């Protein structure tokens, strides 16, 4: 049925063994995003050094897609300048997941990116809608 | 809806002609009659699926309501009144005064297709009969409940088969988020709903983030329940639970 391809092993691995999972004490940036439709929650904590993301942790709960997407995003962000992080697009995130995400699951996949962007830059309005 | 027959009763010739043209354009077989007194005979003759009757028939002999009452005694054709307009009090060059609610919100085309569709749905259900539907539902509820109960790690919410159990099965499988479950079931062509199902306080009470919800009814057969069970098994295999 192709489920094995959808729930590829590395996604299930990130779901079961999330990287950079937990909280930071006294983070420079912290923000939680919640999807009331499904109850998915993703929070991001960042510590910065000279404009670079020195430490990043995420916490939350939800489906395999949202949690694996958060885990993958923290890996990408670690050591990245905040300026470069700003240009991460939804296509980048979906490309990294590498699976075809149905419209109903887009929010799950993009919730971590929304947590980053709203948390770091307070993006709202039309830019915010990009993640809806 | 194309091919359905609609009789229009309106004494305003231009309105009548416009409606007939518009309805035919939509694929209906439409016929017009401008004389309210002729409507009854026309219903017997033309056998419409729906009669549209101008409420304000102005010929001074009968009004639309009287025509409707007469039709009711001799036929069970669905009736709809054409009231038209009615949403404004005055329109001037630079200002408009709207009618009071609810009238100002009720302009425009009446839900013709919906009225005919509702009639067809009622005919369908009555053709099968409510006792037959209930008997089918009860068999399926029992079958589904037993099949789901046999799945390890699966929790069914709600009572066992009996007067308080409907064909709506909310369930949760430990270790698989309902949205992941729904995605996998969808790939087996099993359509379910997942999430808090508009019952967030209940989710809190049950201490679950969400549930998966499968429903059985008249159009479900046991083989489809088997497919659901098989698909849940596949989800468990993928998530190793």
What does this structure look like?
- The complex is a heterodimer of chains A (132) and B (241).
- With 132 residues, chain A is an alpha+beta fold.
- Chain A is 48% helix and 20% strand.
- Chain A is built from seven helices and three strands; from the N terminus they run ααβββααααα.
- Chain A has a three-stranded antiparallel sheet with strand order 1-2-3.
- In chain A, α2 crosses α3 (64-77) and α3 runs parallel beside α6.
- Helices cover 43% and strands 18% of the residues of chain B.
- Chain B is built from eight helices and ten strands.
- Chain B has a four-stranded parallel sheet, with helices on both faces. A four-stranded antiparallel sheet of chain B has the order 7-8-10-9, covered by helices on one side. A two-stranded antiparallel sheet of chain B has the order 5-6.
- In chain B, β1, α1 and β2 form a beta-alpha-beta unit.
- In chain B, α5 (130-149) runs parallel beside α8 and α6 crosses α8 (222-238).
- The chains are: A alpha+beta (132), B alpha/beta (241).
- At the A-B interface, α1 of A face α6 and α8 of B.
Outline of the structure:
Chain A is of the alpha+beta class. Chain A is 48% helix and 20% strand. In chain B, helix 6 (178-187) packs across helix 8.
* Largest interface between protein chains, with number of residues from each side: A-B, 20 and 21 residues
SSE series of chain A: HHEEEHHHHH
What proportion of the residues of chain B is helical, as a percent range?
Answer: 40-55%
Q: Report strand % of chain B.
A: 15-25%
Quote the distance from N terminus to C terminus of chain A: 29 Å
Portion in helices of chain A: 40-55%
Largest sheet of chain B: 4 strands, parallel
Model regions low in confidence, pLDDT < 50 over at least 5 residues of chain A: none
Count of alpha and pi helical runs of chain A: 7
Percentage of β-strand residues of chain A: 15-25%
Topology (elements, then pairings):
The complex is a heterodimer of chains A (132) and B (241).
Chain A: H1 3-6, H2 9-16, E1 29-35, E2 40-49, E3 52-61, H3 64-77, H4 82-86, H5 90-97, H6 103-121, H7 125-129
Antiparallel strand pairs in A: 1-2, 2-3
Helix pairs in contact in A: 2-3, 3-6
Chain B: E1 5-9, H1 13-25, E2 29-33, H2 39-46, E3 50-54, H3 64-74, E4 79-82, E5 88-91, E6 96-98, H4 112-128, H5 130-149, E7 154-156, E8 168-173, H6 178-187, E9 193-195, H7 200-206, E10 211-215, H8 222-238
Parallel strand pairs in B: 1-2, 1-3, 3-4
Antiparallel strand pairs in B: 5-6, 7-8, 8-10, 9-10
């Amino acid at each position: 049925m192709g489920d094995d391809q959808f729930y590829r092993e590395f996604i299930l691995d990130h779901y079961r063994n999330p990287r950079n999972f937990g909280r930071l004490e006294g983070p420079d940036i912290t923000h939680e995003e919640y999807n009331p439709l499904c109850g998915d929650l993703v929070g991001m904590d960042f510590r910065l050094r000279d404009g670079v993301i020195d430490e990043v942790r995420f916490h939350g709960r939800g489906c395999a897609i949202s949690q694996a997407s958060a885990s993958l995003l923290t890996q990408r962000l670690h050591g990245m300048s905040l300026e470069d992080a700003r240009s991460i697009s939804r296509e980048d995130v979906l490309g990294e997941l590498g699976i075809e995400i149905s419209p109903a699951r887009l929010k799950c996949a993009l919730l971590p990116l929304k947590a980053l962007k709203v948390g770091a830059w307070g993006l709202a309005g039309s830019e915010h809608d990009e993640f809806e | 809806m194309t091919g359905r027959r609609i009789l229009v009763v309106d004494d305003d010739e231009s309105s009548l002609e416009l409606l007939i043209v518009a309805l035919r354009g939509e694929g209906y077989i439409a016929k017009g009659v401008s004389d309210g007194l002729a409507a009854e005979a026309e219903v017997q003759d033309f056998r419409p699926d729906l009669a549209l009757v101008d409420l304000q028939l102005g010929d001074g002999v009968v009004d639309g309501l009287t025509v409707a009452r007469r039709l009711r005694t001799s036929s069970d054709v669905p009736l709809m009144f054409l009231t038209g307009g009615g949403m404004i009090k005055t329109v001037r060059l630079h200002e408009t005064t709207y009618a009071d609610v609810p009238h100002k919100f009720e302009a425009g085309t009446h839900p013709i297709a919906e009225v005919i569709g509702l009639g067809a749905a009622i005919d369908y259900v009555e053709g099968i009969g409510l006792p037959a539907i209930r008997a089918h539902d009860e068999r399926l509820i029992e079958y589904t409940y037993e099949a789901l109960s046999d799945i390890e790690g699966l929790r069914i919410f709600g009572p066992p088969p009996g007067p308080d159990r409907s064909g709506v099965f909310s369930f949760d499988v430990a270790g698989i988020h309902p949205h992941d479950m729904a995605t996998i079931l969808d790939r087996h062509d099993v359509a379910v709903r997942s999430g808090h199902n508009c019952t967030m306080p209940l989710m809190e009470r049950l201490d679950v983030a969400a549930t998966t919800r499968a429903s059985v009814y008249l159009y479900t057969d046991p083989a489809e329940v088997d497919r659901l069970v098989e698909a849940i098994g596949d989800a468990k295999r993928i998530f190793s639970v």
